Automatic annotation (TrEMBL):
Name of the protein described by the UniProt record: Bacterial Pleckstrin homology domain-containing protein
YvbH-like oligomerisation domain residues: 147-204
Domain Bacterial Pleckstrin homology residue range list: 10-131
SUPFAM superfamilies (alphabetical): PH domain-like (SSF50729)
Superkingdom of the source species: Bacteria
């Protein structure tokens, strides 16, 4: 017990370890993975208080208050609803015990300390997060442009004369076209599953 208190006081409990793929099923975060929807863990950092679980769909943070408390708060950050920004990595100095990865997901800023001996694995996570952030940013731009295009087309229709025919039928066709346009572009530009990105960068 005294060792746990000392570890908290010195801040050593915050230094995380990257968990091997073979041990993913042993961590608390695994209980909150949506296995039924083909969600898979690709990278996991575990300290004495927290778990940072990166899946193909989301970051799941199992937030602990201290090394001696059993209370946990589980927070899920789906990538498509929480863009990743400001990704950086800090390598260890001569006397440091840890390296650090920082990023913002949605409105939440994370700073995660990791054992300096695992820096090479942490670099893989860094690259994956940078790539995911880039894809989400580009898709947001394209989705906005597609919405602007639809708005321009709608305004052009308003300014012109409606062709002969039943007004209700014309309205129905325009409405269906607008709905399908929006649906197709949302499917194209709102990416939810980043499996291929993690497979490309993470070497488990």
């Amino acid at each position: 017990m005294l060792k746990k208190f000392a570890s908290d006081a010195l801040g050593l409990s915050d230094i995380g370890k990257i968990i091997d793929k073979r041990d993913f099923g042993k961590v608390d975060a695994d209980d909150y993975i949506m296995h039924e929807d083909d969600e898979k863990i690709f990278f996991l950092i575990k300290s004495k208080t927290d778990e940072y679980c990166f899946t193909n769909l989301a970051l799941i943070h199992v937030d602990g208050t201290s090394a001696v408390s059993k209370k946990r708060l589980v927070i899920r950050y789906d990538y498509y609803k929480n863009p990743i920004r400001n990704v950086s990595i800090e390598t260890a100095g001569t006397i440091d015990l840890d390296c650090e990865i920082k990023f913002t997901i949605g409105e939440k800023a994370f700073s995660i300390d990791v054992d300096k001996n695992q820096i090479e694995q942490l670099k893989d996570l860094y690259k994956a997060l940078v790539r995911i952030g880039y894809i989400i940013e580009e898709n947001e731009i394209m989705l906005k442009k597609s919405e602007e295009s639809l708005s321009i087309a709608a305004n052009a229709c308003k300014s012109g004369k409606i062709v002969e025919g039943d007004a209700a039928e014309v309205f129905k066709k325009i409405n269906e076209y607008a709905f399908n346009w929006t649906k197709i572009n949302r499917e194209n530009y709102i990416k939810k599953d980043f499996s291929e990105i993690f497979k490309n960068y993470i070497n488990n």
